[in-house]
């Protein structure tokens, strides 16, 4: 017999998957078999990929999360009071409700220590994931106690069966329906524990108004509603599950007793459209209600029903795969533990303490037996001495009981003091975490101020550039008008000089090609014509410039500058 288990939390990061996982478990290959990979990637990604980047890519392409570019444009359209200072702040706002609920439970004094520690680890993981909550799940169908009872060949075949089961489960319709935003799935072979399937999911949900938020429970509700066909069918099943949990809580989770989930599914298989009996739906005033249990209680069972559906499908696939591979495997239907649900390290410590207490109880029983024997001897001696039955407790027994009570009180005080110190340590750690989060918030606010100052400076530079461009455009327009007017005003004189220039250049070309006595070209005469053409044209320009200078009253210094420019033109 074997148990199918599913561990699920938001403590997952990129360090739990791919090449990071291989590095972390490099020295934990106790059960790794020959030719087995360290990990087997089932999703379409590489071992070295970053889980946060995979999650953001999925959310941006398929869930409606804005990319940094589209967010920047959208952010500019919002009122200043609603704008986010950075893309990170936008990501945090999407998961804001989810994180606030976690923070509220963490701050609630009624939340037990173990839950607070778990939530604190989850919040730290979310911060290390740049504000993206990664929902990590681990699926097991065996434990190492089964491994230890096998030979090498048996273990190799058994682990092959486990891996094949996880592959089939990953490709099953149930897994796809209940994990619609799975971004990463791997089979891990390289740990000291049993071979298992490890996954990472996100839960980005769009409401009817198109608003995006991180809402695992809402996504699970949608998935289960689709699976069962209607909201009413889902609520009926949640109602039945609540009923079996009440039954188990009343009886107690005794080892060997049927589990709540197996009793629930036995009922559902017999009555697929079943619901709680009408007798359980009667109010105190005699009126009837639709469901036996409140909406709040049914809602708390949503995630559990999501887990049950997956564990049941995984168990069925495991039994079918084992049968096809001629392996003995059956899923337990009863409670196999003492009902204390802890993580691996805490559970091992709990078992050690439980064993120590059992030994102490046995020792106490032995002492009690010895005390009874001594008391019997004392009574016998008393009767032999006095020939009377003792009817009152002896002073020795009273002193002994007093000593035991004193020791018990001392133990209780010691235990209470230890508990207080542990709680103070936890509170101090939480205060440090809160301080770190406040520092991060201050850093974000400082970054926002800097970005706003940069934006203001860029806007000013933009306005200055626009003004300068307008000035240059106006100057170019004015220059064009001046040149155009000058040409039109002097065109009659320019036209005859351009004709002379064209005639001389044509003569130069003719001399270059056909001049000389032999008609093969005369470069010397060609150069003379070219020089005469240039000098004649420049002289005409100089004549026009002199007239302009005389009309404008320019000084001799300016005339010299014009002559120098003409000399440069001749040299060119």
TrEMBL record:
Alphabetically ordered keywords of this record: Coiled coil, Plasmid
Coiled coil: 420-482
Protein name: Uncharacterized protein
Organism encoding this protein: Limosilactobacillus reuteri subsp. rodentium (strain DSM 17509 / CIP 109821 / 100-23)
